[in-house]
Amino acid sequence: AQTQKAEAALSLFRPHYRLQGALDLVLTDGGLIDFKTSLPDNPVLLQRYRGQLLVYRILLDAHQQALAATG
């Protein structure tokens, strides 16, 4: 897969909360890459990284839906 976006900052505003994040790379096949400076050495940190990727997926999907809606 090739790079579609690099260093994309995205936000999603809802009535009671806001999600925001900065994606390192978005691939043309929909994959997300978030570079870390080291490997997680404990399961808690690994779970936190997984949660971060989930937030990024939600942000990217919402962004793509908004683009499709505006044409």
Globular, elongated, flat, extended or rod-shaped: what is the shape? flat
Tally of strands = 3
**Helix proportion range:** 25-40%
Could you give the order of the helices and strands? EEEH
Give average pLDDT, whole number: 88
Please list the strands of the largest sheet in the order they lie side by side. 1-2-3
Task: Tell me the fraction of residues in β-strands, as a range.
Answer: 35-45%
Describe what this molecule looks like in 3D:
- By secondary structure, the protein is α+β, with helices and mostly antiparallel strands.
- Helices cover 39% and strands 35% of the residues.
- It has 1 helix and 3 strands; from the N terminus they run E-E-E-H.
- It has a 3-stranded antiparallel β-sheet with strand order 1-2-3, covered by helices on one side.
- Strand 2 and strand 3 form a beta hairpin.
- The longest helix is centred in the C-terminal third of the chain and has 28 residues.
- The chain is flat, with a radius of gyration of 13 Å.
- The two termini are 25 Å apart.
- The model has no long low-confidence stretch (mean pLDDT 88).
